[in-house]
Amino acid sequence: MVPKVFISYSWSSPGHQSLIRQWAEQLIADGIDVVIDIFDLKEGNDKYDFMERMVKDPTVTHVLMFCDKSYAEKADARIAGVGTESQIISKEIYDNVGQSKFIPIACEFSDDDNPFLPTFLQSRIWLNFSSPEAVNDNWERLIRLIYGKPEHEKPKLGKPPSYITSNTATPSNPAINKFNAFRQALLQDKKGLSFYREEFLTACFNFADGLRVREPPVDSLGKKILEDCGKLKPIRNLIVDWVLLESEISPTEVFCNALLDFLEKLRELKSRPPEINSWQESWFEAHTLFVYETFLYIIAALLKTNSFQTLHEVFTTHYLLPSTERHGFDRFETFHCFYGYSDALQSELAPPGKRLNSPAAELIKRQADRVDLPFTSIIEAELLILLMAFLNPTVGWYPQTLYYHSYNREFPFFVRATQHKHFLKLTSITGISDVEQMRREVRAGHERLNVKQWGGFSHVGSFWSYMNMDGLDTIK
Question: Average pLDDT, stretch 70-81?
Answer without folding.
Answer: 79
